[in-house]
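Q: Here's a chain of 106 amino acids. Please give me its 3D structure as tokens.
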Amino acid sequence: MALRTIVFLTLLSVPLSLRPAAAADDLPGGAGLARNCLICHAKDYHDVSPVPRLTGLDAAGIVEALREYRTGRRPATIMDRIASGYSDAEIDRLAAYLAGLHWGEQ
């Protein structure tokens, strides 16, 4: 395979890898979507992370934050790029799922 073809196919696949959760939402109620969030955000008392925990937060607050990240109204280092890959329906499902979790549940 020519180098030009390899580079082209690699560049073609980049946008697919930036889509945060569409393929991950294979579990009911937003659990699949939340797997991406819980990589960085603390899940229980034993996790040490500078990233704020999301479990048990108010769903409306999560929805508001994600939509503000997505539109650029809320300053971010990476969350603006992550949030831009979610639809309103995915944000709603994700927020409801995370709001229903308590420390240590996933």
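Q: Can you summarize the key feature?
A: The CA atoms of residues 21 and 36 lie 7 Å apart.
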